[in-house]
Amino acid sequence: MAIDRRREAAGGGPGRLPPAAEENGALPPGGDAAASAPLGGRAGPSSGGGGDIQPLPAPHAAGGPHPSLLLLDYDGSVLPFLGGLGGGYQKTLVLLTWIPALFIGFSQFSDSFLLDQPNFWCRGAGRDAEQAGVTGAGRWGGGDLANWTGPPPTPSSAAWGTAGPLGNGSGADGGDAPPLPSPPDKGDNASNCDCHAWDYGIRTGLVQNVVSKWDLVCDNAWKVHVAKFSLLVGLIFGYLITGCIADWFGRRPVLLLCVISILIFGLAVALSVNVTMFSTLRFFEGFCLAGVILTLYALRIELCPPGKRFMITMVASFVAMAGQFLMPGLAALCRDWQVLQALIICPFLLMLLYWSIFPESLRWLVATQQFESAKKLLLYFTQKNHVSPESDIKGVMPELEKELSRRPRKVCIVKVVGTRNLWKNIVVLCVNSLTGFGIHHCFARSMMGHEVKVPLLENFYADYYTAAGIALASCLAMCLAVGALGRRGGLLLFMILTALASLLQLGLLNLIGKYSQHPDSELQLKLAVGMSDSVKDKFSVTFSIVGMFASHAAGSLSVFFCAEITPTVIRCGGLGLVLASAGFGMLTAPIIELHNQKGYFLHHVIFACCTLICIICLLLLPESRDQNLPESIADGEHYTRQPLLPPRRGEQPLLLTNAELKDYSGLHDVAAAGDGLPDGATANGGRPM
């Protein structure tokens, strides 16, 4: 065929970039076909199926309109020259990105302690009990509950749960004291809310938290939920805005500016005088925290060679989980919410030293053609790693010298709108992240909420450590699944598990409940007898655990996947989009709680439907395992879909590759075919009329 003849004549080299990629500014327009070729090849040996990215062509003359492809092939030339991750300085920088993950873990899970709704009762409840005929001195258990701040000896009812807007947290008797009255009904709860002062039973190890300090109960209980999603809204806006800024001004300035800001706003939160000030400052604290999380994530990815990226990222996740596990002990040590907030923020003071010890991302400098700064940083890296100039086999430094006169070319995330493949990949991962983190709350609510009563899960610490343990197991399983199946296969597996757990919980358990209530036949009667409510609860807890396990892995893997397939020039912007989508998913939890769980079932049904859509869309994603990171938007466009299973030996692909599609032209076919035809014959073998 003509396409095969052209490919043999050109040595398999790719053709011209599509107009959409040229208009995006990823590479300057013009030049020969080799200049617009994809830059990254597979890091490992190529398989029979081939990689998603075409091999790197030979570099052209540096004086042309395009930068040297040797420099833009960062994973293939620049990083090996610096020693890869084996360089001592790179290892130090990776370690410096791990340490703040512990502080980030403290901040992300602080709401569980600062804003936990405690059990509460009227301060004069003892006298009311005495008037109701309870014998004794009107003090339950021989003690004065007006001064009691610790947990009651044995909770009487709803020990796991927090008191709702009209809840009551009365305690039980101790020793030989007479028993307490039964939990009050709605009328008694309303009378409790007529009180002007309450006593609180805080379950998180603190003597006082935000709820007890400003009496955020009864009519003011809604302010607790506003304070909860103020941090999440700040994170969402922070991801979107700081991501764009980091792509334009660099990762290092955004990181240091956000560290300084989080110190200011975080310490100001501890000095809040009312809940309005607390919620407002928590918004700005979340905004700055998002900048720290996002820039550290991008720097960690850009420091690593292809084979080490996932491992380095997972270590940071485990460090953040260590902060989650240590948080209850930190709360018990501080005893006061203001001291706890200050202790969470103060470790960020250590990150001020990063101004002098942490450099800008060399990969970002090269990708945006800031070769003057890249040269200085490259020399600094070689000095730190004790790399001799003789080891520069590929000639990175001479090529860098030739490109110093180029002007920087920075790109904003909005450029992705004009692409053909890249925007679809980012949107699919955003939907996956939204679904994974959104449905996670549905499973957690089913396991720990009012629908299922399991004795083990009727305690704050049991709830907290159960969720943390499931997240830890999810990350461990994610390491195994990604290592065996790759990014796309692992994400598809966890999303299928999430969908199955959700559909079984919504459909099977409701069907069992329907049959148990209306046994119309002998079979249904046997089923109703064999399936008691306790068994249904155990099934529900099992499905909830599987759903929490799989949804956490799906959401986390979507974020990492997006960081790999998004080009370096817009990586922080793409990460900001997928992390903001995750924030929107988590934001549904306080919104549902604010409406007193109204619409909870519909909320779960909608996200269950989204999991099915995600499973279909995941097949459109490329596989990025062991591949070089894309540097420009043109490189990101060449991350195209690959079959889940490698093709058999000798099997011909049914679709043309990107290079063949770009090379195809009817005029070229006519010219190629016309060379071998006799005079007077047309290109298709016929003769003119």
From TrEMBL:
Biased-composition ranges, Gly residues, are 41-52, 135-144, 164-174
Q: Where are the transmembrane segments?
A: 229-249, 254-275, 281-299, 311-333, 339-358, 464-485, 492-513, 541-563, 575-594, 600-621
- Localisation: Endomembrane system
| InterPro entries assigned to the protein according to its UniProt record, in alphabetical order | MFS_dom (IPR020846), MFS_sugar_transport-like (IPR005828), MFS_trans_sf (IPR036259)
Q: Name one Pfam family in it.
A: Sugar_tr
One cellular component term from this protein's GO annotations in UniProt? membrane
UniProt keyword Magnesium present: no
Top-level taxon: Eukaryota
Coiled-coil annotated spans: none
Its name, as the record gives it, is: Solute carrier family 22 member 23
- Gene designation per UniProt: SLC22A23
